[in-house]
Amino acid sequence: MTYLLDANVFIQAKNLHYGLDFCPAFWEWLAEKNAAGTVCSIDKVADELEAGSDELTTWMHRQNPDLFRKTDAHVMPHFATVSTWVMGQNYEQTAINTFLQVADYYLIAHALADNLVVVTHEVPASSTKKIKIPNVCAGLGLRFMTPYQMLRVERARFVLGFV
């Protein structure tokens, strides 16, 4: 199973539970799992992280470039599947327009292209004003989970050490 991480996984980890300054094990685990082919994200998420211009951006630049997969020709056919599904729902046109311009759209297309499990902090919602990743995943038959579920499935262990 390969996990595809949404931008909010990185951002919330940095801002909340796994700060780069006090929980380096989380970040090392991501790098190790990426090297093993188990964890990845996409170029559009990297663009969002780049915009932060902070310690997360610095960490990102130190990682294997394969952590953030490029959107290439093999992903392109899946954009039509995603957009067709989204437009076939009862979302407001503004929500559709926004979704089709942000990284979430690309994330779902990548997940379809490579049969990846989407990892996000987003939860399903019945709102017609904002399109949520879990709703699209469910609609397209993609697996999705929270970062905590991923860590449990993968049996991640962040053991306190002495420095």
Provide a quick synopsis of the model.
The chain has helices at 7-15, 24-35, 43-52, 55-61, 76-87, 93-99, 103-114, 133-140, 147-153; strands at residues 3-5, 39-42, 68-69, 117-119, 144-145.
Strand residue percentage: 5-15%
For the sheet with most strands, the description reads: 5 strands, parallel
Mean pLDDT equals 97
* End-to-end distance: 34 Å
Which quaternary structure do these chains form? single chain
Share in helix: 40-55%
Radius of gyration: 16 Å
User: How would the global form be characterised?
Assistant: globular
Helix and strand string, N-terminal first? EHHEHHEHHHEHEH
CATH class of the domain at 3-82 and 102-121 and 142-153: Alpha Beta
Strand-pairing-aware structural class = alpha/beta
Q: Please report the number of helical segments.
A: 9
CATH architecture classification of the domain at 3-82 and 102-121 and 142-153: 3-Layer(aba) Sandwich
Q: CATH topology of the domain at 3-82 and 102-121 and 142-153, anyone?
A: Rossmann fold
Work out the number of β strands.
5
Provide the spatial order of strands within the biggest beta sheet.
Answer: 3-2-1-4-5
Question: CATH H-level name of the domain at 3-82 and 102-121 and 142-153... which superfamily?
Answer: 5'-nuclease
Query: Uncertain segments of ≥5 residues (pLDDT<50)?
Result: none
